[in-house]
Write a structure and sequence with these properties.
Length: 107
């Protein structure tokens, strides 16, 4: 799910401004989860719009770093976070290779 900012739009309690309670946050996140949301971020809608306007084919691949129902702060080690960072690169790289191989077979 894409939101308009990192704090309020994602129901975070650790920003400079917060107009809701922990109970409000939990209710919001539970409803989002029930609707099928498993990741919240804020860049994809702008990225998709710019690619569309530019005529570029693109995709958004997200990594979920923590369970927001359990907290807002990362507790994973540097090594674990690094491995998470590599996953979308490996996934997208594999997809691109597959697409290039499929095109090469049709030439």
């Amino acid at each position: 799910m894409c939101t308009l900012d990192f704090y309020e739009g994602q129901a975070r309690l650790d920003g400079a401004f917060c107009s809701y309670t922990e109970a409000d946050k939990q209710e919001y996140l539970i409803k989002a989860k029930e609707a099928g949301v498993c990741n919240i971020e804020m860049e994809s809608s702008v990225f998709a719009a710019m690619c569309k306007l530019s005529g570029l084919r693109a995709a958004v691949v997200c990594v979920t770093l923590l369970d927001r129902l359990k907290g807002d702060q990362l507790s994973s080690s540097h090594e674990v976070l690094h491995s998470y960072q590599l996953r979308p690169q490996i996934l997208v790289g594999s997809y691109i290779k597959k697409q290039l191989n499929a095109k090469a077979e049709h030439i």
